[in-house]
Amino acid sequence: MKLKEYWPSWHEARRLRALALGPLCTQRSDALPLTVSLTSIPSRLHVLPLTVRSLLSQTRPARKVRLWLHRSLANALPQALTQLRSDVFEIHWVDLTCSHRKLIHNLAAFPLETVVTCDDDLMYAPDWLAHLHAQHLQQPGTIVANECRQISRNAAGDLLPYKQWPRLAYGARSEQPLLPIGYAGVLYPPDSLDERVHDVDLFMRLAPKADDLWFRAMAYLKGCPVGHSQQAYPPAQPIIGSQKVSLLKTNVRQDGNRLQWQALCEHFGLDL
User: Fold this and answer.
1) Beta carbons within 8 Å of 48's beta carbon, 6+ residues apart
2) Stated pTM of the model
3) d(Cα 254, Cα 18) in Å, to the nearest integer?
4) Cβ–Cβ under 8 Å, residues 25 and 88
5) CA 96 – CA 211 distance, rounded (Å)
6) Where are the domains of the chain?
């Protein structure tokens, strides 16, 4: 976390903690017709209530917010999180420990829903969800992401290191295939991923630490296009103390994303 981010993060956390429970836990008539689905890990449970509060206090909130956690955490949840449970915010217990659970369980249990995934270490701006939904209305039938990288190869056709996959500028069009970046929010319409998305043994072998890459491969196999937000989205605030455990070192600094994408391409014969 950058030094300049500490004061805005502290200020936003204070604002969110001060919000009354009643409005956060009440189903609103203007709720958007979609579900926000996410997961978390033990080291972030103490800050997770801030993420959930930011989701429940959106200017246009989701109809449902579902949190998928490993069963071993059933007795480890902070009161600040459990007190948010309501008809809007649900906690579900599952056996998987990988990040893929933020989406696959919701797809299996509620296949007709439009689902937005997000991360557990950010406080999302109040207009974040409304912005993403508006982009969805402009690109129906498309997986829409607030942030995308361009999957890039060199002249010989070899994948470039992940750090060299450029971020797509807002309003820009790309001839290269796009990879939705999960932390900023990704919207999945119903039936947008191949049915093999649920193959746990396969994704744990090919992309065990890269759910974004797994879901991108499943979108390609389904024939569902990926679209990028055409306007800058309201930025999220990182939460102080949330990055003690992160996949940044493995997937980015050690180029794990490139290796896992290569494995997916070879297995499925992806032309991406």
Assistant:
1) 40, 67, 78, 81, 120
2) 0.94
3) 40
4) yes
5) 13
6) 3-268
| Domain 3-268: CATH architecture, name and number where available | Alpha-Beta Complex (3.90)
Q: Each residue of 197-221: pLDDT tens digit?
A: 999 999 999 999 999 999 999 999 9
| In the predicted structure, residue 247 carries a pLDDT above the cut 70 | no
pLDDT tens-digit series, residues 86-142? 999 999 999 999 999 999 999 999 999 999 999 999 999 999 999 999 999 999 999
Rounded to a whole number of angstroms, the distance between the first and last alpha carbons of the chain is: 32
Q: Is the pLDDT of residue 243 over 80?
A: no
Q: Please tell me the distance from the alpha carbon of residue 112 to that of residue 262, in angstroms, as a whole number.
A: 31
For every residue of 139-196, DSSP letters joined together read STTSEEESSEEE--B-TTSPBPPGGGSPBPPTT---SSPEEE-GGG-EEE-TT-S-GG
Amino acid identity, position 27: Q
Helix or strand (DSSP H, E) at 69 = strand 62-70
pLDDT 10s digits, 172-181: 777 789 999 9
Contact 251, 257 (CB under 8 A): yes
Q: Order of strands, edge to edge, in the sheet holding 32-39?
A: 89-94, 62-70, 32-39, 115-117, 186-188, 143-145, 226-228
Q: How confident is the model at residue 26 (pLDDT cuts 50, 70, 90)?
A: very high
